[in-house]
Write a structure and sequence with these properties.
The protein is an alpha+beta fold and 66 residues long. The protein has helices at residues 32-42, 53-64; strands at residues 7-11, 14-20, 45-48. The longest helix is centred in the C-terminal third of the chain and has 12 residues, at 53-64.
Length: 66
Amino acid sequence: LQGIPDLLVLYGKTWFSLENKRSANAKKRPNQQYYVDLMNSMSFSRFICPENKDEVLKELKQVFIK
């Protein structure tokens, strides 16, 4: 399906998805925001790029590593 995030990670009984972008200003394709928001409401999903990589990885640790 067009718009589904690039990466799905299964971690124990949980999961998350990431949509990779070359930069924070990279254009989003149709439906990408919809699917990232939908998957985030179910678990964890983010757009990730070099500019926000550290922030997203920090969030992942806070959510999944307890």
